[in-house]
């Protein structure tokens, strides 16, 4: 179960989110001066797409293939047991704490299932999830309407993979034995969910066809991760090329403004993740920045203040003699 207490708040809770404006990192008592004369206001990815004057359309724009809402499969993270506000009955919680203490379970490994395999997968899946006859979410509108991507199951998978890769980057920065576990749980949950959706939501009745789809999606995932990694470690031009080939399907009528907006969107997510400690990220204290919000870099003073607050928070938590076994962690909060 994911623990969401006042101790485990996301770095994003320390951000000032301004719709269609920008995201400013700040500390609770020291907010960046928005009226500063020399402050450069970056447009959000969504705002950037409005600058497009090219009437580009995806090749198969009319080929809608959303799943049927009547056969929707709920996420594991939709369960009340995975809800941030859910509280186990006291006897169940006490029994669980006893098991953890008796067998000295490594909670940093145990958390990978509910955090990566449920909560983080839910974040990635829901970004562009769409159903026939239902209104699109704000993030889904960015991809399907602003970027004019086709509303197909395959396109949803590509958008989901992009967000999973963003999380992979942060997971690989964790200690190897934990980061690898988080990645594996996320991938396992992805393909388990896709298999279920193909059968129950897309009405695919042949196991052989589903297996072929899964193999194809696995190939796409590996190729996308490799391409995005290359872009991440080189420059924005290489990253844009990877996004064009995967997210936009290598279309010839791609709008460069749209491509720039996605690069900005990706870099914003990566920057927020880079400011998070292993401890915060591992307990599920992250959510993607909305496309209608932009991210500005912290000043050196703000970074130092944020780091100091994080250290104090976890030092107080770890020194508490009443800390529950399930809240213990060996992961760093100083990085």
Q: What features would you describe in this structure?
A:
The chain has 335 residues and is mostly helical. It has one domain. Helix content is 51%, strand content 2%. It has 12 helices and 3 strands, in the order ββαααααααααααβα. The protein has helices at residues 45-49, 90-102, 107-110, 112-127, 138-146, 153-171, 176-200, 207-233, 236-246, 256-274, 278-282, 300-318, and strands spanning 15-17, 23-25, 295-296. A 3-stranded mixed beta sheet has the order 1-2-3, covered by helices on one side. α6 (153-171) packs antiparallel against α7, α6 (153-171) runs parallel beside α10 and α7 (176-200) packs antiparallel against α8 (207-233). It is globular and about 65 Å long. The two termini are 25 Å apart. The model is unreliable at 1-39 (pLDDT under 50).
Kindly summarize this structure in a few lines.
This protein is mainly α. It has helices at about 45-50, 90-100, 105-110, 110-125, 140-145, 155-170, 175-200, 205-235, 235-245, 255-275, 280, 300-320, and strands at about 15, 25, 295.
